[in-house]
Amino acid sequence: MLKTDRSAAIRRRVEVVSDVSAPSRFVRSGATGRLVRIPNDVVFDAVLPERCNQRPAFSEISFFPSGMSCGGAIALTRFGAGYEIRVNWLTGGVEIVARNTF
Q: Which domains are present in the chain?
């Protein structure tokens, strides 16, 4: 979904903002409006910038027409194993990395 938002920002030549709410346990696409709810048995953490493009950005990842973003990371863990979804601020690239929490 984050990759879709980045692609939409480049293709449409506008900023696309993905909403990320760890307390409310959801991620919403800025391009499609699609909402993904995180189940209660999954530990959901997000590290996001405080400011992006001269404005507060505590619960969002912004993608720009240039392909860049403000970056961020989302960690999903269940039963001691999980994944981290990383958004690179410089390239806007999205990568998913296995995360072992043992």
A: 2-100 (3.55.40.10)
